[in-house]
Structure formats: structure tokens, C-alpha cells
Design goal:
heterodimer; A: alpha+beta; Phenylalanyl-tRNA Synthetase, Chain B, domain 3; Phenylalanyl-tRNA Synthetase, Chain B, domain 1; 4 domains; ten-stranded mixed sheet; seven-stranded mixed sheet; 15 helices; 28 strands; B: alpha+beta; Arc Repressor Mutant, subunit A; BirA Bifunctional Protein, domain 2; 2 domains; eight-stranded mixed sheet; 21 helices
């Protein structure tokens, strides 16, 4: 999630009240205060509320929530007369462009930093790492309109930000830190996106880097904004958020003609929502008037209509309003979560445990009755533990994860017994005898089923113990088992058995092969078993939801 | 006077005429082993009836290497005698014992080495080590060096002398009842009633019993069972299902956009498998693209069928909820799932790539956000958290969303889960029109609080000692 740094002095000035009041109420609009400092606070906001990723945006919302200024913030947009054209050749590369001229900005160092931070947060949340949207801000007075957004040959040269010499666009991808970070977004294209002015001077190589030429400084008074990307809606939203944030500081917004269409359009979107539907969702009685008032507190334009509806004007920076219920959530937030009276539904229902869970509970009681301790090993493991150390052939049904984090977690277990051997290894310095069992999920193919496995380690552990254990388990679970000589290489020949039900092998038991013991650093004999729970009568045909 | 066992009494009776004796003699007198005699002596000593003196003697034997040097002299002595007054270092190093000896030669100051020549400094009298080597005995000053050089081995022999105290003698003189004691009652004694005449041995509560460890359910499983019990009591049906899910069910059906960061390879375990689209998938696609037939705008952009077909290890149990609702479309539905979920996180004390998630849904006519809060409050109260508060939250598949927090003494407000009402974008594609309240909770967090664990790994790679010592009944303080 995005963490926004809010400077107290600036925040207090923008909100118009003291920081204690602001900080106390801020969590109520959906934020987590990460850390407080002497002069600023770091706050985390949800990824859907990209409009709160600047001090200006937070102040705008808090003014509403605190009742200092309510209703729709209005932003005037006047034509700048500046034209911007988009090269049709960009259609398959990075086709969408949003732009605006922002005049009368007055940025100090902190202001520039805050703008850059907003830009970065938007790159992350809306832009998905600049792929969907990348934002460039330029000192308008260093270049000459009209501007062109075009598909350029890859060897075009210019001086990128933070460099002194010209580099070709290809060199930028290889040598500039930002080039290396974002090269994957463009490198497969034959031509690269480029923004130039009337004199063919380079403003930007989106989504990689701006030109040094248009660097924004504390002396910058007028800004040209460019938002480019692959998703028109996201591009538009990013431009709206930057424009409205800067407008909150007193700047004025002017539109740019992109292929003849003025941009940005900061007019609100309109929705007519039902009071009854809102009341039903939230469980509170509201009149249209009350609902409208709550929405105005959240900075919507809202007006009660006569037929149980409310006309809502959604500010141009609200990226999260996709559905009427998104508006109802804002009603709930404005109403205050604390003010809801919690209620329990009246409908009678009965609880029911899943049959597999019932079975596992019974198995737990059988094993604990025999003196076994339960363990709950991981399901992610390695082929080394699962097969190599057990002297077993890898199962053709083993499921490998595509990008494992470590060599210890490359596959999902197809058996539990090897994981129990590992538990014994962890506990090899603890007093013997040790008897442990586990029941849980195994995955074969893509199918989840359950098994139970148990091990007993002590100087007298042997085949007889394993056989007795398996026979008891089968008897207690009603498994009509036949026992036959096994060929499982994890066990000693002549001291191992398979469990057969209707001729199908559903379990194995016996005395662990000494090489397997030493592979797990064990020095005493181990009697072991594992049984497939699908063999137990009553196991649901598919273990899905009942 | 403390109760004496028959053995202790017999021991005192044997000791009294001797006054003082070695353990061997006492053993012989009692017809038992020396160890047993010492044990009885110590028990009597605890009652102040005897005094036990532990005598230890130390002897030394030469190791084979020591034996060799006793015969031929220590290496430095052999080298010293192998040349006249001076020798070049090169020649000195040619001596077979040079590697051990030269260091000692210098240490003992027998030679001075200048410019590659070793010259004798004068007399080299036999040192304490050499004296000890000839006949090692306890207390010789040279022994320590020989032990260090591994030339002798130390042996300790222990013997005991026991003397009766005046109290012991008085007791014996007063007369001791030497009737045979009964330990375990025999069947014979019980049915004939002869146990009435038998002298039953008394046992001391001061001797701790041997610890017995029962077989036990895992402490974490106990918490899981408790959570499940609460939900069953509240009328919820348990769901179970596949760990392997298609991205369609794990993400798309839950209205997570295809470019959502949580879907990326670095957060989710993808598998080298695909699963065909289920019936009705087109409605989910339309929901993403344009909001289907709801008031939603959808996410717009593109929606790729192939992305949805990829299999993942479920990142939450919520796919089970949607699947359950599809197969149980008529209200009321109250269901929960508690199972493993997977996140691609490196292991550390508070993060694991797999852990348990609890998930609950309530679909019913007329349920609202107020009921969601009611359910959460009731659930947390029953779990032993008396104070619950709610804050706005954000989850891609619920609207409104809420983050419940509970008060934990010493920790303050702790966030234990997320909740909300399923978005219409989630329910509408399947024709579900009744509102669905939903919530998810990480159980391991509760387990850590309850069990006082600092490291989550202990739940899955348990120390047997911890399992043995964890009490079956653990009341919250």
C-alpha cells in the first residue's frame, strides 16, 4: 500500500484546523497511521483511494469529513490554446495521452518533493509500475508549443534527466537507472514513444524518463502535464488527480487540445442512486436528504430527488467509484462505523461439520489414545525430503510450484510421512520414545485429499509395532483392509506391508530402512505408517463442499 | 523420625556393629551390590543416621605415546642429544621429531636460534615433566603438562566409607522392626485379606513421580477446533475444497483485476498447469470489462482468458465461498472454511508461505452491513475478545469493507481480519441477488497471541518438548 508523508504545517494550512483533530479523525476515512514524527506523519491509504496520495488530496477529504467545507470541489478549466497531436503509429505501442497546462504553480523544495511522491504513488497504484500510466511534468516555459507525441526511431538522442550528455533512446534503456528499471515496458517495440515540442526538442521518453530540458524547479511557474499509457481510463484518472491536487494549492488549470479534443475534462460524473437500496445495504434508515448530506461530507455533489433517489456528482479524481455500492460505502463512512448498531439476523440455521473434518477429528482421538502427539507440518516441501531421502521414486503426480522461494519449498507434499521424519530429525536431541502423527491435506495431480501418517522412534521400535498400529487404525476406522508384502523402498524388505482395500493400495507401514534413518540423522529404529483417508468408509466421493 | 524403608533399617543394623565400614564390606554384610549399599547409606545420611565420606584417588597411566617417550626421552630431549653444541636449522628440521620437538626446545630455553643456527644455551636438567613421565603420581607438578601433551591419562577411583552417627546408633539400640514390607499388593493378598497383616511400604511425596506425557492434539489444532466450534454453534456449515485453484476462481471470480499486484508471480505460487473455464465464465469476463448488467463500470481494458486458466495454490479460501454459493444459491446460507492458504513470502518468524485462513459467509434476505458488524462482534466475543471496533477497509471483492480490530491487553488494538459485503460484481454473474456478508481471518495471529509464541514456525515444525509441556487446557488470562 502507498505510504504518504504529510507535513503537519502544510496539512494544517490546507485543512484549516489543528493536527490533533486531523490525526484523530483520519483513520475514520480509511487510513493507517504508520509512524508519527515531530514535523510530519507517515500514513498508509488504501490502493483504491489514489486521490488520497497527496497532502492536497487528504486535506480536501478531511475538510469535508470535519465539516469545514462540504460538497463537490469545483475546478475551472479554461482553454490554453495549446495543441498536442498523437501519432497514429503509437496505436500498438502506448496509444493514450492525457495532458493539461497548470499555471501559477508556486513550488518550494517540499512542494516539488510532494509532487514527485504523488507521481510515484500513482505510477504504482494506477500505473501498475508505469505500464498502464506514466506521468511527466515539465516546465512549460522552456519549450514551444504545439507538442507532438510520436513513435520515434530508437536512435533518437536527447539529454535525459540527471545526465549532462545526449544519449540515444536505446542507450538510455541500457545506461540510465530509470532506463534499466523500465526497459521491459518498451524494448520489444520497433519505435519508442517520444514527446517533442514545435522545435523538435525532446520533453520526454515515456514511460522511461523526461528530458533534462524541462526539469521542474522552484522557479517553475507553469507546468505541462503528460500522462501516457495503455489504459485510457487510468491515463485520464492520473491526469485528473494531478490537476486537482495542484488546483488545491491555488494553481489554475488550462486545457490542451489533443487532436482537437480539449483535455482535461474535470466535470463530475453523474449517478442517480436509490435511497432504499442504500438503506437496505447498510441496514440504516435514511431519508434522501440525510443521504445527500452524508455524501456532501465525502465531497460528492449530492441532491435529493423527489422519487427516493439521490443525484450524485462524483468528483473527477475518485477512481474507486465503479458501482452504486461504492457510493453507499461512502455514506457508511460518513455516517461513522462507530454509529452503526450491530445486529444479529433472525433466521434459524444449524451448523454442520464437514465429513472429512469429522473423520480427521476421530483419527486424532485414535492416535492420541495410543499416546501419539499431533504435529502439523508444512505442505510445501522439497523433492529431496519427499523422495530422495525416502529412497522413493518421485510421484508422477507431484505438483511443482513455478517459482519456488527456496530449495526447501519446491513441491506440494504427496505424502505426509517424510515430513514426520523431518520432525523427528528436528527433535533428535529430545527424550525417546517419541511418537507423533499428523493428518492433513496432500495433493496428487491437482486434487486435494487427506492422509494420516504416524511414526514411533525408540530403541525397540520395529515392524510389529508398525503392524499393530496400522491394524488398530484400520479397525477403529472401519477400513476393510487386507495386508500384503510391500515393495516400498523406504522400509526394510521383509518388514513392510501394504494396506489393500478392494485390491487398491491405500496405505503402507513397516520399519524404516536404515539408510532413510541416517538420511534424516536418526540413530534409532522407526516404525511408521501412512493411510489414505479416501479409503475410510464415509469419505465423501468428492471432498468438495458438502 | 522419618519413615525408614526396610532396606534402610537392615543397612543400619548391619552398620551398627561395625561402626564404620567401606561400601564393599557393607554390601557383603547385606548380600547386595556396592551401589545399593551406597544408595542406602545416602538415604540414611539424609535422615542424619549415617555419615558418608566420598574418597577419590587419582591414578595415571601413560598413553602409548607417553610410553614411547619414557623409554627414549621426550622429543625435545631426543633432539637435544642428537647434536653437539650447535646445528643448522636445516639439519635440525631433518630430525624425525622436529615438528613436535623444536617448539619445546625453544620454550624450555635449551637452545637459542640465531641466523638459522640453533645453539645450546648450557645445561638442560631434567624437568618436572620428565620426572613425572618416569613414574606419574598424583600431586606431581609435571603432570599437568603431560596431560596437556596427551602423554598420560587420568583415572579417578571413588570409594565410600560410611560411619554410623550417634542418632543412628540410638535408633538401632532402641530396636528396629525388620518385618518384610509389602510393595505391590498381590492378587493373593487382596482376595485372602492377608494384606491386613502385611506391612505396606510407605512412599514419600517428596520423591517426584516419573513424568508421563499423554498423546495430545496439537495446541494449534485445539485453537482451530475452538474457532470451528464457535462457528458451528453459530449455525455455520463447514466447507472444504481444493488447494489448487484456477486464477479464475482465486482472482477473477472475486473481481480482482487481471493486473492486480496480488496476482503477480512474486506474491502468488503459480503452478505449471491450467484448468478449463467453468460454465458461466463469460459473465465474469463481462463483469470485468463493463460491469455486466449491474450499475458497475467494470475495470475496462482487456481481460485475458489464458490468464484466468492458470492454476495457483489458493491465496485465500474465498474461492470456496463463491463455489459454495453457486451450488447453494438459495438463502439462507451460512458457511465457513478453515484451511491452508499460500502466499509467496519468504519464511521469517512472523511470515510463512502457508498458513490457515478462516472464512465465513452469510447469505440471507434482509441482511445488511449492520448484521455483518453484529456477526463479527459476536464471533470475536465468543473467541474471548471482549472489545471489538470497526474501521473502514478495502478489499477488491467487498463493498462496503471493514477492518475489525480487537483489544488485546499489552498490545492495544489488533487487526485480526477483513470483512465486507460481496460486491455485486462477484455475485451477479452467478445470479445471486441476496446480499452476502463475508469475512476472513488469519488464525495464526490468534494462535500466536494465545500460545505466547514469538515464532510462527513453531506451529509447523514443532519441538516435541514444547508439545509435551503444553497443557491441554489453556485458559486465557
Amino acid at each position: 500500500m502507498a505510504v504518504i508523508t504529510l507535513n503537519y504545517e502544510y496539512l494544517e494550512r490546507l485543512v484549516g484546523t489543528d493536527k490533533e483533530t486531523i490525526l484523530e479523525r483520519m483513520p475514520l476515512i480509511g487510513s493507517d497511521i504508520e509512524r508519527t514524527f515531530d514535523d510530519h506523519v507517515d500514513v498508509e491509504f488504501f490502493p483504491d483511494r489514489v486521490d488520497l496520495y497527496s497532502t492536497e488530496g487528504v486535506a480536501r477529504a478531511m475538510r469535508g469529513y470535519l465539516g469545514i467545507e462540504e460538497g463537490l470541489p469545483e475546478y475551472e478549466v479554461t482553454p490554453s490554446g495549446i495543441a498536442f497531436s498523437v501519432d497514429p503509429a503509437l496505436a500498438s505501442i502506448r496509444p493514450h495521452l492525457g495532458s493539461a497546462v497548470i499555471r501559477n504553480v508556486n513550488l518550494d523544495e517540499a512542494g516539488i518533493e510532494s509532487l514527485m511522491a504523488l507521481q510515484e504513488s500513482l505510477h504504482w497504484a494506477l500505473g501498475r509500475g508505469r505500464r498502464k500510466v506514466a506521468i511527466g511534468v515539465h516546465d512549460l516555459d522552456t519549450v514551444t508549443p504545439p507538442f507532438r507525441y510520436l513513435a520515434s526511431p530508437r536512435d533518437r538522442k536527447f539529454v535525459p534527466l540527471d545526465f549532462e550528455d545526449e544519449l540515444s533512446m536505446e542507450e538510455i534503456l541500457a545506461e540510465h537507472p530509470k532506463g534499466r528499471d523500465y526497459a521491459r515496458l518498451v524494448e520489444e517495440f520497433e519505435r519508442f514513444p517520444l514527446i517533442v515540442d514545435a522545435n523538435d526538442q525532446v520533453l520526454s521518453f515515456p514511460p522511461i524518463i523526461n528530458g533534462e530540458l524541462t526539469r521542474v524547479t522552484t522557479g517553475t511557474r507553469n507546468i505541462l502535464l503528460d500522462c501516457t499509457g495503455t489504459d485510457e481510463r487510468a491515463v485520464r484518472m492520473a491526469a485528473n488527480i494531478i490537476c486537482t491536487a495542484l488546483a488545491e494549492t491555488g494553481a489554475t488549470i488550462e486545457s490542451v487540445e489533443i487532436d482537437g479534443t480539449p483535455y482535461p475534462d474535470l466535470a463530475p460524473a453523474e449517478r442517480v442512486v436509490s435511497v432504499a437500496e442504500c438503506a437496505r445495504l447498510l441496514g440504516i434508515d435514511l431519508t434522501a436528504e440525510e443521504m445527500a448530506a452524508l455524501l456532501r461530507k465525502m465531497r460528492f455533489g449530492a441532491e435529493a430527488l423527489p422519487d427516493g433517489k439521490v443525484r450524485v456528482l462524483v468528483p473527477p479524481y475518485r477512481a474507486d467509484i465503479m458501482h452504486d455500492w461504492d457510493i453507499f460505502e461512502d455514506v457508511a463512512v460518513a455516517y461513522g462505523f462507530d454509529n452503526f448498531e450491530a445486529a444479529l439476523p433472525q433466521t434459524f440455521t444449524t451448523g454442520k461439520e464437514h465429513p472429512v473434518a469429522v473423520l480427521q477429528r476421530e483419527i486424532r482421538s485414535v492416535f492420541t489414545g495410543m499416546g501419539y502427539l499431533e504435529v502439523m507440518p508444512f505442505t510445501l516441501t522439497s523433492e529431496r525430503v519427499l523422495y530422495e531421502q525416502m529412497r522413493r521414486e518421485p510421484s508422477p503426480e507431484v505438483l511443482r510450484v513455478a517459482k519456488p522461494i527456496s530449495e526447501e519449498q519446491t513441491v506440494v507434499r504427496t505424502e505426509i510421512l517424510p515430513l514426520l521424519m523431518e520432525i523427528l530429525e528436528i527433535n533428535c536431541h529430545r527424550e525417546l520414545p517419541q511418537r507423533v502423527f499428523a493428518t492433513g491435506d496432500v495433493i496428487r495431480g491437482t486434487h486435494t485429499t487427506q492422509t494420516v501418517a504416524a511414526v514411533s522412534i525408540h530403541p525397540g521400535a520395529d515392524f510389529s509395532e508398525a503392524y499393530a498400529m496400522m491394524e488398530t487404525l484400520c479397525r477403529e476406522c472401519g477400513v476393510a483392509a487386507e495386508f500384503a508384502e510391500s515393495e516400498d523402498p523406504a522400509f526394510i524388505d521383509g518388514r513392510r506391508g501394504d494396506v489393500l482395500v478392494d485390491g487398491k493400495r491405500v496405505g503402507v507401514f513397516g520399519e524404516i530402512y536404515p539408510d532413510v534413518l541416517t538420511a534424516f540423522s536418526l540413530e534409532h529404529p522407526v516404525a511408521a505408517l501412512e493411510l489414505d483417508l479416501t479409503a475410510v468408509p464415509g469419505y465423501p466421493v468428492r471432498p468438495d463442499t458438502p | 523420625m522419618a519413615d525408614l524403608t526396610l532396606n534402610e533399617k537392615k543397612f543400619l543394623v548391619a552398620l551398627a556393629p561395625l561402626g564404620e565400614a567401606g561400601a564393599g564390606d557393607l554390601a557383603a554384610a547385606l548380600g547386595t551390590t556396592e551401589e545399593a549399599a551406597v544408595q542406602y547409606a545416602n538415604l540414611c545420611a539424609e535422615h542424619g543416621l549415617a555419615a558418608v565420606e566420598r574418597l577419590s584417588t587419582t591414578t595415571y597411566t601413560l598413553t602409548p605415546e607417553g610410553e614411547e617417550y619414557r623409554e627414549h626421552g621426550l622429543p625435545e630431549r631426543q633432539i637435544y642429544e642428537s647434536f653437539a653444541d650447535a646445528i643448522s636449522m636445516k639439519d635440525l628440521q631433518a630430525h624425525p621429531l622436529s615438528r613436535i620437538g623444536i617448539g619445546w626446545l625453544r620454550k624450555k630455553g635449551w637452545v637459542a636460534i640465531t641466523k638459522g643456527v640453533a645453539e645450546k644455551t648450557g645445561e638442560a636438567p631434567a624437568g618436572e615433566d620428565e620426572i613425572a613421565l618416569a613414574d606419574p603420581k598424583d600431586g606431581m607438578p609435571g603432570i599437568a603438562d603431560l596431560l596437556k601433551r596427551n602423554l598420560v591419562e587420568e583415572h579417578e577411583a571413588v570409594s565410600y566409607r560410611v560411619a554410623i552417627t550417634p542418632e543412628g546408633r540410638a535408633l538401632v539400640e532402641a530396636g528396629l522392626d525388620l518385618v518384610e514390607e509389602t510393595g505391590t499388593l498381590s492378587r493373593e493378598e487382596i482376595i485372602t485379606g492377608s494384606w491386613r497383616e502385611a506391612k505396606l511400604r510407605r512412599y514419600s511425596l517428596e520423591t517426584p513421580p516419573k513424568r508421563v506425557y499423554p498423546g495430545k492434539v496439537h495446541p494449534y489444532q485445539r485453537i482451530i477446533d475452538e474457532v470451528k466450534r464457535v462457528l458451528l454453534d453459530m449455525g455455520f456449515v463447514e466447507m472444504q475444497g481444493e488447494i489448487v485453484q484456477s486464477a479464475f476462481w482465486d482472482f477473477d471470480a472475486l473481481f480482482q483485476p487481471q493486473d492486480h499486484p496480488a496476482r503477480e508471480m512474486q506474491d502468488t505460487f503459480y503452478l505449471d498447469r491450467t484448468e478449463p473455464m467453468p460454465e458461466g465464465w463469460e459473465r465474469v469476463r463481462d463483469m470485468h470489462l463493463c460491469g455486466g448488467e449491474t450499475t458497475s463500470t467494470g475495470w475496462g481494458g482487456v481481460w485475458d482468458e489464458e490468464v484466468a486458466q492458470k492454476c495457483v495454490l489458493r491465496t485465500h479460501t474465498t474461492p470456496l465461498s463463491v463455489q459454495y454459493l453457486i451450488s447453494h444459491p438459495n438463502p439462507p446460507v451460512k458457511a465457513f472454511a478453515l484451511g491452508r492458504v499460500y502466499r509467496r513470502e519468504a519464511i521469517d518468524p512472523t511470515h510463512l508461505p502457508e498458513f490457515e485462513q478462516l472464512e465465513g459467509i452469510v447469505m440471507d434476505e434482509g441482511v445488511s452491513f449492520r448484521h455483518l458488524l453484529g456477526f463479527l462482534k459476536e464471533f470475536y466475543n465468543r473467541m474471548g475478545f471482549d472489545e471489538v471496533r470497526f474501521r473502514p477497509g478495502y478489499f477488491p471483492y467487498t463493498e462496503p469493507s471493514v477492518e475489525p480490530e480487537v483489544w488485546v491487553d499489552g498490545l492495544g488494538w489488533v487487526e485480526l481480519g477483513g470483512a465486507g459485503i460481496f460486491r455485486q460484481e462477484v455475485t451477479a454473474p452467478w445470479g445471486i441477488e441476496t446480499p452476502v456478508l463475508a469475512w476472513g481471518l488469519g488464525i495464526s495471529r490468534i494462535a500466536m497471541l494465545r500460545l505466547g509464541l514469538k515464532d510462527l514456525r513453531q506451529l509447523y515444525r514443532s519441538d516435541i518438548e514444547w508439545l509435551r509441556e503444553s497443557p491441554a487446557i489453556r485458559r486465557q488470562e
